[in-house]
Structures are given as structure tokens and as C-alpha cells.
Write a structure and sequence with these properties.
This protein is 39% helix and 11% strand. The chain is of the alpha+beta class.
């Protein structure tokens, strides 16, 4: 009879790689919920904008805005209870989160240089749907006030 492997053991095995490959990159439950909120507001958009820097999750090309829907853990949402640095292999995770944040900021800046306003919606913001709905409405219907709507902040780890 084979014993179940601990999480630490699994982290060094090919099974871990397969598990990580199954982590969704698009159409996550959080992203779908945000799309539904925007749809409820009767605002047009497209998804999966692979032609734009960072492949924003939700885009309106006519009004030149883009929304990134970020998971609090993977995108290192500072101050959020859903983001903590894992206890094992902390140096690896610190570097990974720092690199993720730097990449996010770089892609956001590239979009702004193309004339897009950018909004980052965090997974935890779905806890207060009414406030989020108001923020989305204000952002999506605003004029192209490029760059002033971003909530992404690059923090040192």
C-alpha cells in the first residue's frame, strides 16, 4: 500500500508540475463574476485580448480601457488576507511575487503608453459587490483619463 505524500514531498515531484499546470489562467470564477457585473451594467467589452500587452482580461477598445482581474495570491496583493508568503522555500516565493508584481506593472505601463486607462480588480474586492459595481461603472463609463484609475502598486518584498 502506497502512503500519501506530504505537500513538501509533492513540491519536488513531477506531480507538482502537473498540478500547477492545471491552475486556470483565463475564465477563472473571479473573472467570470467581474464580467457578469460589467455585463449587468450593459457595458460592452471583449475578453482575452492577446493582442494587447499583458493580455488584459476585459477590454473596451472604443473607450480605450482595460481591466486586469488579479488573484490576490498569485499577484501578491499587499495587505490582503488572501496573500501570504508560503512558509517553505520563502526565497523562491519572494522572488516569484516580486517578479510577478514587476511584470504586472510593466504591462500596465505598456497599456497606458498605448492610450488605455487601466484598472486592476482584486479577487477580494468581490466581497463587497455593490462597491465594486460602482467602481466598475465609474471606470468603464469615464472618459479616457489614462492612468489615473490603476490600483496596482509595486511594493518591495
Amino acid at each position: 500500500m502506497r502512503q500519501k505524500q506530504s505537500r513538501a514531498e509533492l513540491a519536488t515531484l513531477p506531480q507538482r508540475s502537473r498540478l500547477m499546470a492545471n491552475v486556470r489562467k483565463t475564465s477563472t470564477s473571479t473573472e467570470i463574476a467581474i464580467r457578469n457585473l460589467i455585463d449587468d451594467l450593459s457595458i460592452s467589452f471583449r475578453t482575452g485580448a492577446r493582442d494587447l500587452p499583458g493580455s488584459p482580461d476585459i477590454v473596451n477598445d472604443e473607450r480605450r480601457w482595460a481591466i486586469f482581474v488579479n488573484g490576490c495570491f498569485w499577484h501578491a496583493h499587499a495587505g490582503c488576507k488572501y496573500w501570504t508568503i508560503p512558509r517553505s522555500n520563502r526565497a523562491f516565493w519572494r522572488k516569484k511575487f516580486r517578479d510577478n508584481r514587476a511584470r504586472d506593472q510593466r504591462k500596465e505601463n505598456e497599456l497606458k503608453s498605448l492610450g488605455y486607462s487601466v484598472l486592476v480588480v482584486w479577487q477580494c474586492e468581490l466581497k463587497d459587490v455593490e462597491t465594486l459595481k460602482t467602481s466598475l461603472l465609474n471606470f468603464c463609463r469615464s472618459s479616457t483619463d489614462v492612468g489615473s484609475k490603476s490600483s496596482a502598486v509595486l511594493h518591495a518584498l
